[in-house]
From TrEMBL:
It is found in: Cytoplasm. It comes from the Bacteria. This is Pyrophosphate--fructose 6-phosphate 1-phosphotransferase. HAMAP family: Phosphofructokinase_III.
Amino acid sequence: MKVGVLTGGGDCPGLNAVIRAVVRKGVQEYGYDFTGFRDGWRGPLEGDTVPLDIPAVRGILPRGGTVLGSSRTNPLKQRDGIRRIKENLSALGVDALITIGGEDTLGVATRLADEYGVPCVGVPKTIDNDLSATDYTFGFDTAVGIATEAIDRLHTTAESHMRVLVVEVMGRHAGWIALHSGLAGGANVILIPEQRFDVEQVCTWVTSRFRASYAPIVVVAEGAVPRDGDMVLKDESLDSYGHVRLSGVGEWLAKQIEKRTGKEARTTVLGHVQRGGTPSAFDRWLATRFGLHAIDCVRDGDFGKMVALRGTDIVRVPIAEATARLKTVDPALYEEVGVFFG
Ligand code: F6P
């Protein structure tokens, strides 16, 4: 049995832990051979491979990024993409493909498995934690940890100058990172894409915080949009998913706060810092368990399935379940956290 492995989409702390677990168990327990595909779906499309064996995965557990490389290449959007993938897998003697990715990568895997009979197993990843069918994705805990540390640090500089500090975190469509890091870091306002925000209300919270002699921290997800829709975007373009990419909400909000409250405001955009570097212990644990269960799916011939975390159990679900809809923040949960605003 030869197993192909690829990592697609944005990188995420814990990808290497999955690769290591898949290879270690696959070689040691089942005697499988492996082929690594470079740069997500570009690898099988172009037959671009890297050797993947026990020596290749030594020492990679704590490393961020992915030793296989990643890309947002979508073979479904390429001429003859499916045919080329099938031909390359067959030429390389690859009997099964473990695809580690988010919405886009897994969307391709589900179609390849369900419509074209390509034996794919899915492993969910994204720092955004917005994939359905799994309680958590690895990478999220690391991203929340980094954002929380940043908020902790920003509190002291905000207090020293009695300024408003706006922290923009990742999350185009879901506010999980904003919500978790904002709560953990004691933010005074948290704004998420799921609920349009009212700039006047934000300013009221900011002012009441100053009245209590504290400097406010506002955490805003990059995809958050003001209620009146009058946001002037610094840059508006389509990302590789074809979604409108909003850019600059943090800076825009800081300017609005300054204008409306007369208080000085600064913005910190955390950006890719949240995605880089070593994974947290939880993410290593989750990614490793996903890897161990993914190779068992291969052993069982259970294709078109994805591993998922339910409570403390790793279960198998159709890959399509993860990609059918985004897992967004429930309004009741957002309201619960709202007790700390202002
Ligand atoms: O999907 C994960 C994510 O980190 C989003 O939160 C963010 O908007 C996006 O990736 C950034 O992608 P890229 O690295 O392609 O700019």
